[in-house]
Amino acid sequence: MHASVSDPNLPLVRRLEAVGFRAWPASSVLYDGSWQVRLTGSHPSKRLNCVVALDPSDHRDIALRIEKAGRRFEAHGRPLLFRQTPLSPKLLIDHLAAEGWECFEEVVTMTCDLTTLELPDTMDHLPTHDIGRFVDADITVHETDPALKPALAEIITSIKPPTGLFVIEDPETGPVAATLCVQDNDLAGLMSLAVRPDKRGNGIGVEILSTALRWARMRGARTAWLQVVSDNEPALALYAKMGFTEAYRYHYWRKKAGA
Questions:
Q1: Whether residue 80 sits in one domain with residue 35
Q2: Does residue 152 fall inside a structural domain?
Q3: Domain enclosing residue 91, as ranges
Q4: Please, are residues 195 and 206 in contact by the beta-carbon 8 Å criterion?
Q5: Sign for the pseudo-dihedral over CA of 66, 72, 75, 80
Q6: What confidence category does residue 152 fall into, taking pLDDT thresholds of 50, 70 and 90?
């Protein structure tokens, strides 16, 4: 099992959270104090539809603020989710637990020093500028609902920092891997990396990851980051092999049915 960081670097957490928001932007972002309320009616991604508290000391009027957020999520037809990071107030988490909420899905945020990483001197795959092509590839390799294509295209179009869209294709069977790399000054975020299930274990993951990291480093990025669900052992092994180490973890909270 991947060892958890017991004492995360809070300034680093704050910075990675900030670039993460820019790398995967919600269509609606409001603030209640330091609580960020993220909603995206067109896409069900948990990262795009959750409340994230960004100050450990901001724990006033917890019950009232949860109720207020709940009404907003209900209006958007979304279940109210809280995303717990090392920046979340302890009193908020204690309140959720006491009120019958359940914690689910642990995600590991990892970083890698690009200045010391050994990468090929050449890029085998140049980024595409065709968002439609990339979205089709992403949906194929993730095996997600094609109906989400317009929403995913809208999300990618709304990313403000420079973004590289990478696709590896087989001439006969189509897309086999895809990822996007968002370069935000000296930080580069790897998003939505996946290899088609029937093509895994053939080095394609290393190939597309190396290409994206090389692109980011050529543009001045010094540190790469990514997020992966903690029970995805093959992905964790791949990222560790590439030099990534854990920075912190986050979890989601939802109201138990009937609670």
A1: yes
A2: yes
A3: 10-107+250-255
A4: no
A5: negative
A6: very high
The pLDDT, as a whole number, for residue 125 is 81
Q: Is the pLDDT of residue 44 over 80?
A: yes
pTM over 0.90: yes
257 within 8 A of 15, measured Cβ to Cβ: no
- Is 128 in the same domain as 209? yes
131 lies in the same domain as 211: yes
Q: Quick one: which of 10, 91, 78 has its CA closest to 44?
A: 78
Provide the pLDDT for residue 201.
87
In this predicted model, what pLDDT tens digit does every residue of 93-124 receive, in sequence order?
Answer: 999 999 999 999 999 999 999 999 988 766 67
Could you give the C-alpha distances from 11 to 8, 21, 64, 138, in angstroms and in order? 9, 16, 29, 32
| Residue 50 in tokens | 């959750």
Query: What is the side-by-side order of every strand in the sheet holding 35-39?
Result: 28-32, 35-39, 50-53, 81-84, 245-255, 101-113, 223-229, 187-195, 174-184, 163-170
Once rounded to an integer, what is the mean pLDDT over residues 229-233? 96
Residue 16 placed within a domain: yes
Report CA-CA distances (Å) from 224 to 179, 190, 203, 250: 14, 7, 20, 18
- 191 exposure class (CB count in 10 Å sphere: 0-12, 13-18, 19+): buried
For 136-160, letters b (16+ CB in 10 Å) and e give bbbbbbbeeeeebeebbbbbbeebe
Q: What is the pLDDT of residue 2?
A: 44
Looking at the fold, whether 155 and 177 belong to one and the same domain comes out as: yes
Average pLDDT, the chain: 94
Whether 239 maps to a domain, the answer reads no
Phi, psi of 232 (to 5 degrees): -90, 75
